[in-house]
Amino acid sequence: MANEMGCVAVPQDFAWTNLLDRKYFALIDPTVNTLDANGVPTNIGDIESTIELLHAAFLNEAAPPGSEAFKETYDLLLTVWQSGLQRVTDGNEPIALPQRCKATQDLLEYKSFAQSSNPNRIPIVTDPHYVIRAWMAVVNYLLSDARFLLN
Fold first, then answer.
1. How far out from the chain centre does Cα 77 lie?
2. What's the rounded Cα separation, in Å, for the pair 115 and 108?
3. Staple partner for 151: which of 60, 81, 102, 136, CB 3.0–4.6 Å?
4. Digit-coded pLDDT (tens) for 75-106
5. Coil, strand, or helix at residue 105?
6. How far apart are CA 7 and CA 83, in angstroms?
C-alpha cells in the first residue's frame, strides 16, 4: 500500500493549480530546482513545515526540526532528491514519471482533468528536478511505518 499510495497521492496533490487546494504540498514547487550548487535545499523552511505536516498527518506525531524523526525523514528526502536529480542530469533516468504515478485524471470522478467538474487541476507527468519522486519516497517511508496502521 505504501508503494502505491506514495506513487499516486503525491502527484495528485501536486496537480492542484491553487496551492490552497493542496493537502500536503502547498509550500513545495516541483517545477523549480531549489538545491544550491552544494546540493543543499534553498527552501529549507518550506521543507521543514512539509515534513512536520506529513508526520502529523500520517503518524500522528510531532517531528520538529532537530528531532530524530525529522532528521531521518529529511535525510531520506535529500538523499533521494540529490541522487535522482543527478541521474536525470546525467541522462540515466527519464524526466517522465512512471506511467502508474502520473496524475492525469480525477480519481474520484474517473475522468481526465480536462473533463472533470473541477477545473483547477493540471496533469503531472514529468519531474525534471526529481522533487515529486523525492516526496514520493518520503510518503512511502511514512506509510511503511507500522505506526501509520495504528492511527
1. 9
2. 12
3. 60
4. 999 999 999 999 999 999 999 999 999 999 98
5. strand
6. 18
C-alpha cell at 58: 500520517
The cell for 11 is 502527484
Domain with 72, as residue range(s), is 2-150
Task: Please give the single-letter amino acid code of residue 99.
Answer: Q
Cell numbers placing 82: 540529490
Contact criterion met (CB below 8 Å) for 134 and 141: no
Q: How many domains does the chain have?
A: 1
**Structure pTM?**
0.93
Read off the C-alpha cell for 15. Answer: 496537480
C-alpha span between 53 and 24 (Å, rounded): 7
Per residue in 50-64, pLDDT tens? 999 999 999 999 999
Spatial neighbors of 104 by CB under 8 A, at least 6 apart, are 112, 113, 123, 124, 125
